[in-house]
Write a structure and sequence with these properties.
By secondary structure, the chain is α/β, with parallel strands linked by helices. Helix content is 39%, strand content 20%. The protein has helices at 11-16, 55-74, 77-93, 95-106, 110-130, 167-181, 195-206, 222-230, 244-255, 279-291, 308-323, 343-358, 409-416, 432-441, 474-479; strands at 22-23, 27-28, 35-39, 46-51, 136-140, 146-154, 158-161, 185-188, 214-216, 237-241, 260-264, 269-273, 301-307, 362-366, 380-383, 400-406, 424-428, 446-449, 468-469, 482-490. Strand 17 (424-428), helix 14 and strand 18 (446-449) form a beta-alpha-beta unit. Helix 3 (77-93) packs antiparallel against helix 5 (110-130) and helix 4 (95-106) crosses helix 5 (110-130). The protein is globular, with a radius of gyration of 23 Å. The termini are far apart.
């Protein structure tokens, strides 16, 4: 483990700078010295070994969080904000280091990884500013006999479980809000991508977060860690981003202790293109909505529903754009798409494409992938995808665009909403009345109108139906870590 935060440059130096323990009151090894390996999906080589924590270690992390909880809750909003501002500056200073770590652990292109580092810093900046804007009200009761005062207080120690696809920014989205609200937090990153979260924990300590305010625990056995923590009466909040099946299980466990929960779960986003859409704009935004993060995004466009009058032109243009994507080593500046997370992701993409083609879909564009090691999947555009294809029902999480044609607006709405999920949707149209009408009817927590990117630190991120509960980002994200207390005081007329 390192004791200083000088910014490293080369790959070996960057990896050497990552702490190898887990963070409770201080850095320590897992019980029994257990470790697990982290592999680079572009090379399939081991790049690091980190602490493989179990239930006992999880409780140690919560011990630290619980011990720090009262003092952090009593710390003034301005002083909490100062810590978050310093952490923002530190993330900005270490931008290139963090980008290299993200690229190494998940295969994201270096350009996108830099963007993620900036996005993470933006969350800490936003919540540093939100921390000093307290919520509550003071008003006389209708009969004048009492005075109503409401105060927002921190909910208490939190467990933050983050996904592998956006490892640093999702940790920042949760931790920044929790710390700004006055909560302490145990951060549990995905086993595929623990390195950037370990560095975040180190940077938080350097920025002045007291011991225990942000602890970080890494594990290859997420169930053991979460079960131990969810059963502990000191834990008061769970925030989880991941699959719907795992989210359902965690909700069941949380229900036993009536924990506050925030759940950002799976998606099956429709991307609707109407005949009146600007073709060039639609294709450009489709590339963003589909290919961002290599298609491994919960808000990524999953089903392209395209009206018949524009479908031929849209399919040809999108096929041409996707066929030209440069797929390769993610650390190269000119690479546009790196590998997927692991071989299971590649196998799933292959299965979905084969199933769609077997049911009548046509490949209208496909990029080349490099030979040799690495979990690469060919970016592909499928046209004439039937409604019964698996790719219309399942979250793709890969670089495949499936085009399903429709004739009427009513048909488009029926297909778009025919899913258990409701995270994000996209609408491409030149008519403002249609945009408003369709957006109102889409069963989704977020709708991008003539935009393929909805993520924004100042906006509430979250879904409806089985895509989750609660919101992250914006002022709403702060409220998820606060509970209201009502004070009944003597009234002015009592």
């Amino acid at each position: 483990m390192t004791d200083t935060l000088t910014v490293p440059s080369g790959e070996a130096e960057v990896l050497e700078s990552v702490p190898r323990g887990f963070l409770a009151h201080d850095w320590q090894p897992a019980t029994g010295g257990r470790t697990f390996e982290v592999r680079n999906p572009a090379t399939e080589k081991v790049i690091a070994t980190v602490a493989d924590c179990g239930a006992q270690d999880a409780v140690k992390a919560l011990d630290a969080a619980a011990a720090a909880a009262d003092q952090w809750a009593l710390t003034s909003p301005r002083d909490r904000a100062r810590v978050l501002h310093r952490l923002t500056d530190s993330l900005t200073e270490h931008r290139e280091r963090l980008a290299q770590i993200i690229t190494l652990e998940i295969g994201k292109t270096i350009t996108e990884a830099r963007g993620e580092a900036d996005y993470a810093a933006a969350y800490f900046r936003w919540y540093a500013e939100e921390a000093v804007r307290p919520h509550g009200r003071s008003t006389p009761s209708p009969d004048g006999r009492s005075h109503i005062v409401t105060v927002a207080e921190p909910v208490g120690p939190c467990l933050l479980i983050t996904p592998w696809n956006v490892p640093l920014a999702m940790a920042a989205r949760k931790a920044a809000a929790a710390l700004a609200a006055g909560c302490t937090a145990v951060l549990k990153p995905a086993a595929l991508t623990p390195l950037s979260s370990l560095v975040l924990g180190e940077l938080a300590r350097e920025a002045g977060a007291p011991p225990g305010v942000l602890t970080v625990i890494t594990s290859s056995d997420a169930a053991a860690v979460s079960t131990a923590l969810l059963a502990d009466p000191r834990l008061r909040k769970l925030s989880f981003t991941g699959s719907t099946p795992v989210g359902r299980l965690l909700l069941q466990q949380s229900g036993a202790r009536v924990l506050r929960t925030s759940m950002e779960l799976g998606g099956n986003a429709p991307f609707l293109v109407f005949d009146d859409a600007d073709l060039d704009l639609a294709v450009r935004e489709a590339m963003i909505a589909k290919m961002r993060l290599g298609g491994q995004s919960c808000v990524g466009a999953n089903r392209f529903l395209v009206q018949e009058g524009i479908a031929d032109a849209f399919a040809a243009a999108l096929g041409e754009r996707i066929a030209a994507i440069r797929v390769g080593a993610p650390d190269r500046e000119d690479t546009e798409l790196g590998p997927l997370a692991d071989h299971r992701a590649v196998d799933k993409v292959r299965h979905l494409v084969e199933d769609a083609v077997a049911r009548g879909a046509v490949v209208v564009g496909q990029a080349d992938i490099p030979d040799g090691p690495g979990h690469y999947a060919a970016p592909t555009v499928l046209d004439h995808v039937p409604a019964d294809a698996a790719i219309m029902r399942e979250e793709v999480f890969g670089p495949v665009a499936a085009i399903h044609r429709f004739s009427t607006e009513a048909e488009a709405m029926s297909v778009a909403n025919n899913t258990e999920h409701g995270l994000a949707s996209y609408v491409m149209t030149s008519h403002i009345d249609r945009a408003r009408r369709v957006a109102a009817r889409l069963q989704a927590g977020m709708v991008g109108v003539n935009r393929g990117l909805v993520s924004e630190v100042a906006a509430p991120f979250g879904g409806v139906k089985q895509s989750g509960l609660g919101r992250e980002g914006g002022p709403e994200g702060l409220h998820e870590y606060q509970q209201l207390k009502y004070l009944s005081l003597p009234g002015f007329h009592s």
